[in-house]
Design a protein that fits this description.
heterodimer; A: mainly alpha; Four Helix Bundle (Hemerythrin (Met), subunit A); two-stranded antiparallel sheet; B: 47 residues; rod-shaped
């Protein structure tokens, strides 16, 4: 009777958690749609760049999610894995790296689409653009390394080393527009944010909503990694028989 | 392409990348669930 009640309580807890995750997913997607409305219709048109400046409201939050939470979680979880040898950290790092690559891809594609009408060229080997492209290559290599090796501690150790070394490029990307001569806009300087208040509001809103979307994607991807490792264990179990 | 064209292309790319990623996650999830059920059935049959 007690075991039955405990199992029922566990199931109820798991159902409640799933419901919360689903709610987070709905809130994130609706939030992104509201962000789309704010960016395309509500925000005022920029005086010099015109409508194409509106790309920036999704470009910068994508860059923030990739460089901020995504690759930093890879870095922290890679260190935790090397210290504790717990594969849970490896799974979180892998999930976060994948999301980071997806958001870096968005950043690298939307940037040139803004640059073409403003700079007159899709791409220049500017320090910010180049270091971001290098970061993308490093984490694509990280994902390829994982995809081409079998699951286990050896893969986790190798991935953790790549994840830690790769993260070193994140502060370089961030500081590149301060360290070197660049044509990339500098939004935040010593005097604060170079933006009109309603533009700053839309940007802050999009940053918050993209962060929420990152949390949702991370939760579902970590769960998927756990399911994958359960499938691998069962496969091993069958092979041992 | 006009400025508006670049703007639409930018937002179009964002939604395509996000959509493809969510679709991939969904497909991977369905595949894992199928594998899990099949393996559990095999283990049950063998025990």
């Amino acid at each position: 009777m007690t075991a039955e009640r405990a199992s029922e309580a566990t199931r109820a807890g798991s159902d409640r958690r799933s419901l919360l995750v689903d709610a987070l997913g709905v809130v994130s997607i609706v939030g992104v749609l509201v962000g789309l409305y704010l960016a395309l219709l509500w925000a005022p048109t920029e005086a010099v760049m015109g409508d194409v400046q509106r790309i920036f409201y999704f470009h910068m939050p994508s860059a923030w999610v990739a460089l901020g939470p995504s690759f930093t979680v890879v870095f922290v979880c890679s260190i935790l894995y090397l210290v504790k040898k717990d594969l849970r950290y490896d799974r979180i790092a892998a999930a976060s790296a994948e999301i980071g690559v997806m958001f870096t891809t968005i950043t690298l594609v939307t940037g040139p689409l803004w640059a073409r009408p403003i700079w007159g060229a899709y791409w220049t080997w500017d320090p910010r653009l180049t270091t971001t492209l290098v970061l993308w290559f490093i984490f694509v290599a990280y994902l390829m390394l994982r995809a081409s090796s079998s699951p286990g501690h050896k893969r986790a150790r190798l991935s953790a080393v790549v994840g830690i070394v790769g993260w070193v490029d994140v502060p370089i990307v961030f500081m590149s527009i301060r360290w070197w001569r660049t044509i990339h806009p500098l939004l935040i300087n010593g005097q604060g944010m170079n933006l009109d208040s309603s533009m700053a509001f839309v940007l802050m809103y999009c940053l918050a909503v993209f962060s929420l979307l990152y949390v949702y994607l991370l939760i579902i991807r970590v769960r998927q990694e756990e399911l994958g490792s359960r499938v691998d264990r069962l496969r091993q179990q069958l092979l041992m028989r | 392409m006009s400025d508006i064209g670049f703007l639409y292309a930018g937002y179009g790319v964002i939604w395509v990348v996000l959509g493809v990623y969510l679709f991939t996650i969904g497909r991977r999830q369905a595949g894992l669930k199928r594998d899990l059920e099949r393996l559990e059935r095999e283990i049950e049959r063998e025990s």
